[in-house]
Write a structure and sequence with these properties.
The protein has 380 residues and is of the alpha+beta class. The chain contains 14 helices and 20 strands. The strands form 5 sheets. Strands 17-16-13-14-15-12-18 form a 7-stranded antiparallel sheet. Strands 6-2-1-10-20 form a 5-stranded parallel sheet, with helices on one face. The chain is elongated, with a radius of gyration of 24 Å.
């Protein structure tokens, strides 16, 4: 064995492929019984592999600029071609999001694993890393404890969300003990709690469509879902960084109506009508009307329709989040993603301290950092 990769998610498998292409004998150690579980979960509702945007626009979606050269090396165009090379053609949706035509992750993963096997990559499942024993990587395996001393190692252990799929951040104390700086993990792309009244229960599971959400000076047009736990969905996730940091959330439920037209429609409403009837006549869905009744009491009707304040109780727990912020800090890494205090050990994927919205950014960055780390590790 020349190279060890710990973690068989998108970043780890991409690192393994780069190492194998360079002629390295590669072992991939995966704690779970099967590889890429979070990747497969992400693909259940349609695998969004990237977003069709110019490189500068794509890189600007991330909360840090140090990823820019990595994303330029393996960005939207390269991701799409990589999928095609695996026999999985892609298409671009109206929002610019790119999907495999099969829509699911499993055909892409099967083709990729077959190609990796043909390259000689040795995938060992149920191999759980337990830190170091001296200079060796210690693993708990079905055959008992194992110690490995590879020439180079790429870590791709994920962040701290969806621990049941493998991203449990158990590696953090082992890394900090070796002098690696870790920014505290925080949830990203997550829902937020709301202390609903009992009257809202019939609306749980219902979407609020075509709304304009505002927080911290940013506006997002989209939809979100009411749940018993609070609010979630793509429009909420897009503002999650600002909401997590305390920005208040307001919602325009009728963004397509000009203010003068809305004012005229309100003026024509009968004063004898109930509030529920007035909201229905203005075109609100039952769920949107319930939201106005919940948070718009005491507000002028026009304000409750165009700038409705939603009282959030805070982010949902990190283990429910799609992704995380935090991780191994940039100053702990070389430009090649090698750990400064651990020569010959590289890190990739969600282990690193970066944050991005959903929409193809997360998966592309995992692939890109895995590829970057794997290629740099071949130079050791």
């Amino acid at each position: 064995m020349d190279a060890l990769v710990i973690g068989a998610g998108p970043a780890g498998l991409m690192a393994a492929e780069e190492l194998a292409l360079a002629g390295c004998k590669v072992v991939v150690a995966e704690a779970k019984p099967t590889p890429a579980r979070k990747f497969l979960m992400a693909g259940k509702s349609g695998l969004n592999v990237t977003k069709d945007e110019p490189p500068d626009t794509f890189a600007a979606a991330f909360n840090t600029d140090w990823l820019a050269p990595i994303l330029a090396d393996f960005g939207p165009e390269q991701v799409a071609q990589w999928c095609r090379d695996l026999g999985q053609d892609v298409f671009t949706g109206s929002s610019g999001r790119v999907f495999p035509k099969a829509m699911k992750a499993s055909p892409l993963l099967r083709a990729w694993l077959q190609r990796l096997a043909g390259q000689g990559v040795d995938l060992r499942t149920r191999w759980r890393w337990q830190g170091w024993e001296g200079d060796a990587f210690r693993f708990a395996t079905p055959e008992g404890p194992q110690l490995l001393r590879p020439r180079v190692t790429v870590l791709a252990l994920g962040g701290a969300s969806w621990s049941r799929l493998g991203s449990d951040a158990a590696w953090v104390p082992w890394m900090t003990a070796r002098g690696v700086s870790i920014a505290p993990f925080r949830p990203a792309n997550m829902g937020f709690g709301v202390d609903w009244s009992a009257h809202m229960a019939p609306n749980f599971g219902q979407p609020i469509k075509s709304a304009l959400l505002s927080a911290g000076g940013q506006q997002i047009r989209g939809e979100f879902v009411l749940s018993s736990r609070g609010v979630e969905g793509s429009a909420i996730y897009a503002l999650s960084r600002l909401l997590r940091d305390g920005a208040p959330l307001t919602i325009n439920l009728l963004p397509d109506l000009a203010p003068l037209i809305l004012a005229a429609r309100i003026a024509r409403l009968k004063r004898t009508d109930s509030q529920a009837n007035r909201l229905r006549k203005l075109g609100l869905s039952a769920a949107a009307a319930a939201l106005v009744m919940e948070f718009g009491r005491g507000l002028p009707l026009e304000q409750s329709l165009t700038a409705l304040p939603i009282a959030l109780t805070g982010p949902r727990p990190m283990d429910e989040a799609i992704s995380v912020a935090g991780g191994i800090t940039r100053d702990s890494l070389t430009e090649g993603l090698e750990l400064r205090t651990l020569p010959g050990v590289y890190a990739s994927g969600e282990m690193l301290d970066w944050e991005a919205p959903t929409g193809g950014y997360l998966l592309t960055a995992c692939w890109a950092t895995g590829k970057w780390a794997g290629r740099r590790a071949t130079l050791v």
